[in-house]
Amino acid sequence: MRGRSPTFGAALLVLAAACGSPGRTPLVIYSPHGRDLLSLFERRFEQLHPDVDVRWLDMGSQEVYDRLRSERANPQADVWFGGPATIFARAAQDSLLEAFRPSWAGAIDAHGRGPGDRYFAVYETPAVIVYAEQALRPEDAPQDWDDLLAPRWRGKVLIRDPLASGTMRAVWGMIIERGMKQTGDTAAGFQWLRRLDAQTKEYVLNGPLLDQKIVRQEGLVTVWDLPDILLNRRDGLQLGYVFPKSGTPVIEDAIAVVRGARHGAAARAFVEWVGSVDAQLVAAREVYRLPARRDIPADSLPAWAREVRRRMRPADVDWDLLAGQGGEWMRYWDEHVRGRGAVAR
To answer: What pLDDT shows up at residue 344?
Structure first.
């Protein structure tokens, strides 16, 4: 997801804390959503709540989780905005999230509502296969997950580092679970990931760098989330994308109040607003977010969102299984798969 590096963002957050507007309530948000969405929502929310000073720190969703755990005794954030519900579920089990049920909770599918009202889905974020549009025609790009393993893509695949990325953890989890459905064991999924590792030229630090490397044709194909790709295309980057034929993992992208938040009233107001119809439509129309609410008429959505819903085939993913096993699977991948695909080939 687009945005600033955690180090740079942390420096800005510290500066903002030192130079914040007197008399305004600071609202600190940890989020992987990137500057396009976060800056937009900062402006809109402050217009509605001029007594609030929104300050956001952009980082990967796994990094948000790790940071909240490290700050458990002295929370610095008020809201966690964005990331797969599977990671929010782990945070809820670790008692990192505050119970809060917004008025729009009933408009979300039951699976998008965290146990005990600890988190709620606000967007649906598809993961897609991405390619360098200047180098490949749409029909020549990989059309499905297994196509990424074809010999022609060896050394031409770039992957966002999965350890820090909730999007990539969701894709890895889908692949492992798919193998379990076929064989009853995780071995098939990890073998698939070994083969992809052998194809992979580099695990890239963050989403913006990944996009730039594909545009520069340092690699030709990758996997990433659709909203970022659509934003980049709007900004002129020549990135094409394909919905995998066998199914696209559609991530339930959630929001929550941080347990022990210093500014709880402002945090609850922000969560309430983000899930409102107005905010959902602003996000859809201006920054390519698919609303999670089921009560928004299709004709209110922009054309791109209606087209995505028409073309996309959601993958059948057991998100509860990924929430429970995903951390262990990623540790195994990091220790036994990353960088070893060529050896195991």
So the answer is: 52
DSSP string, 124-166: EEEEEEEEETTT--GGGS--SGGGGGSGGGTT-EEEE-TTT-H
Cβ(249)–Cβ(176) below 8 Å: no
Rounded Cα distance between 291 and 309, Å, is 11
Strand (E) positions, 133-289? 157-160, 200-204, 221-225, 239-242, 250-258
Alpha-carbon distance 122 to 292, whole Å?
5
Query: What pLDDT score does 341 carry?
Result: 84
Closest CA to 174 of 313, 339, 308: 313
Strand partners for 157: 200, 221
Scan for tokens 């990137």, then name that residue: 34
Report residues of the chain scoring pLDDT below 70.
Answer: 1-22, 343-345
Q: What angle separates helix 85-93 from helix 61-70, to the nearest 10 degrees? A: 10
Residue the block writes with tokens 């959630």? 254
Q: By the 8 A CB rule, do 68 and 256 touch?
A: no
Q: What is the pLDDT of residue 12?
A: 46
pLDDT of residue 112: 94
Q: Model pTM? A: 0.89
Residue 264 CA to residue 88 CA, distance in Å, equals: 18
CA distance 92 to 98: 8
Q: Count Cα atoms within 13 angstroms, Cβ side, for 221.
A: 26
Looking at residue 11, its pLDDT comes to 40
Measured on CA atoms in the order 41, 58, 232, 242, is the torsion positive or negative?
A: negative
pLDDT (tens digit, 9 = 90+) per residue, 34-51?
999 999 999 999 999 999
The predicted pLDDT at position 21 comes to 59
User: 153 Cβ partners below 8 Å, 6+ apart?
Assistant: 142, 147, 199, 220, 221
Kindly list the structural domains of the chain, giving each domain's residue range(s) and its CATH number in brackets, ordered by start. Answer: 6-124+250-311 (3.40.190.10), 126-248+315-344 (3.40.190.10)
